[in-house]
């Protein structure tokens, strides 16, 4: 694919030890020859791929900076085009000056994500791998990072390609048999197709079901702290965050609105929300906060129910117990540094959830909470070499549609429908799966995906 030449600053726009200006396209080397001179003051007369050169960047006779230049001849580069990377001093003004010089001598400013977009359009990576690049950049925890690195290496695209190969084989067989019934028989084919469909359906079901863990990896666990006033919710919030974010007093109803923070526990990202204490109140402002807490609980991935161990359960605790009855939750028996009137065993039987004795004041029991949260969302260690986790909403949507098509094929076989009905749904599954890796995708969607990248990537 022939393209014009683009350039951008590939490192952060802040003062640093080093800055990188990236150039890619047909004129990348000719631009370099115009602006770069070696230590001896000579222009590069012969460019050998994958070499590093020491010298200076010039604008005409004006020396701009001392640099190292890496040259990569396509297709053996990130974009599969001729590519140059200029390593200069990392001042913002210096990086801008060199970029302006590069543009002056023939390149144009790159759009957001245009380098990766070219890698995709030039066939170096498929669309799912391109999307994994931004996943690597935006990863908030070790699980999201490992998953994105795995997808960049082709874990998702390999599965999709294998499924498409199996589907297209069945389509080709049906079409061939319908075109040449004298030599290719469809007798008994329905049973054989059912046997081939079942493993594909099971694999796609597994991929779709992995998307819940995938969302947790990338977006974080929506975690809501519930409890009646003065149970110790805000104290717990401060312990988890590691600083005094929530106001803590002995006055019931101090927290009247939600307070949100993003934290990492055991490699898992938590979007944690401290809420107003749940109780009946006549205070208008507090009543709004209590209603907001209930609504947050309905939308939460995880609820942390904080119980005051020093006083008996009351109607407010009972209300929260009903609220978490069929939800993913962990119960903290707080204030265990005081004389306890509620036992761990009683609370476990009452709530049906795991109960962890803690003291937010003494900061004890927090490690057990972290371990419990980890085990709730990731049962055992995840092996990213074998397991594929869907972390992209677009991929999940396509898989759900393709899975529905395969289930329709299965139903058509069971209903004794003609074989050409199978082809229609099989072809839809094939095309939808193709959209995941970019085999069948519209230009508008491609532009939308790469517009979310940073400039220089």
TrEMBL record:
Q: What Gene Ontology cellular-component terms does the record carry?
A: cytosol
Could you give a single Gene Ontology term from the biological process aspect?
tRNA methylation
Q: Where does (6S)-5-formyl-5,6,7,8-tetrahydrofolate bind?
A: 22, 85, 124, 457
Q: Which UniProt keywords apply?
A: Cytoplasm, GTP-binding, Hydrolase, Magnesium, Metal-binding, Nucleotide-binding, Potassium, tRNA processing
Residue positions binding K(+): 230, 249, 251, 254
Q: Which subcellular locations apply to this protein?
A: Cytoplasm
What EC number(s) does its UniProt record assign? 3.6.-.-
Q: What's this protein's function?
A: Exhibits a very high intrinsic GTPase hydrolysis rate. Involved in the addition of a carboxymethylaminomethyl (cmnm) group at the wobble position (U34) of certain tRNAs, forming tRNA-cmnm(5)s(2)U34.
- Record's subunit section: Homodimer. Heterotetramer of two MnmE and two MnmG subunits.
Q: What is this protein called?
A: tRNA modification GTPase MnmE
Recorded source organism is Hungatella hathewayi WAL-18680
């Amino acid at each position: 694919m022939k393209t014009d030449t683009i350039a951008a600053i590939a490192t952060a726009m802040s003062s640093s030890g080093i800055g990188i200006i990236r150039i890619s396209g047909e004129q990348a080397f000719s631009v370099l020859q115009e602006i770069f001179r070696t230590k001896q003051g000579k222009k590069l007369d012969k460019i050998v791929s994958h070499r590093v050169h020491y010298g200076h960047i010039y604008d005409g006779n004006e020396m701009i900076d001392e640099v190292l230049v890496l040259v990569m001849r396509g297709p053996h580069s990130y974009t599969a085009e001729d590519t140059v990377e200029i390593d200069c001093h990392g001042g913002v003004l210096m990086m801008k000056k060199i970029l302006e010089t590069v543009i002056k001598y023939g390149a144009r400013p790159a759009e957001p994500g245009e380098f990766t977009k070219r890698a995709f359009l030039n066939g170096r990576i498929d669309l799912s791998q391109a999307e994994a690049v931004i996943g690597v950049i935006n990863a908030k925890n070790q699980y999201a990072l490992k998953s994105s690195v795995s997808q960049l290496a082709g874990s998702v695209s390999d599965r999709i390609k294998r499924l498409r190969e199996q589907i297209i084989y069945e389509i080709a067989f049906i079409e061939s048999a319908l075109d040449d019934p004298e030599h290719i028989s469809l007798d008994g084919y329905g049973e054989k197709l059912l046997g081939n469909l079942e493993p594909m359906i099971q694999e796609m079901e597994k991929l779709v079901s992995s998307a819940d863990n995938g969302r947790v990896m990338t977006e974080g666990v929506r975690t809501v702290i519930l409890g009646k006033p003065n149970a110790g919710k805000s104290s717990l919030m401060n312990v988890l965050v590691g600083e005094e974010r929530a106001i803590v007093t002995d006055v019931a109803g101090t927290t009247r609105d939600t307070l949100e923070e993003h934290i990492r526990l055991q490699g898992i990202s938590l979007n944690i929300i401290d809420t107003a204490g749940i109780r009946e109140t006549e205070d208008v402002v507090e009543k709004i906060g209590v209603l907001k807490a209930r609504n947050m609980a309905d939308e939460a991935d995880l609820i942390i129910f904080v119980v005051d161990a020093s006083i008996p359960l009351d109607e407010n605790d009972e209300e929260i117990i009903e609220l978490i009855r069929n939800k993913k939750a962990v119960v903290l028996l707080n204030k265990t540094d005081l004389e306890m009137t509620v036992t761990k065993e009683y609370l476990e039987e009452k709530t049906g959830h795991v109960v962890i004795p803690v003291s937010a004041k003494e900061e004890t029991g927090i490690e057990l909470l972290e371990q419990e949260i980890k085990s709730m969302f990731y049962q055992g260690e995840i092996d990213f070499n074998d397991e594929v986790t869907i972390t992209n909403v677009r991929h999940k949507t396509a898989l759900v549609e393709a899975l529905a098509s395969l289930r329709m094929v299965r139903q058509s076989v069971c209903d004794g429908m003609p074989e050409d009905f199978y082809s229609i749904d099989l072809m839809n599954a094939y095309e939808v799966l193709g959209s995941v890796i970019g085999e069948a995708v519209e230009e508008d969607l491609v532009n939308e995906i790469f517009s979310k990248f940073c400039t220089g990537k």
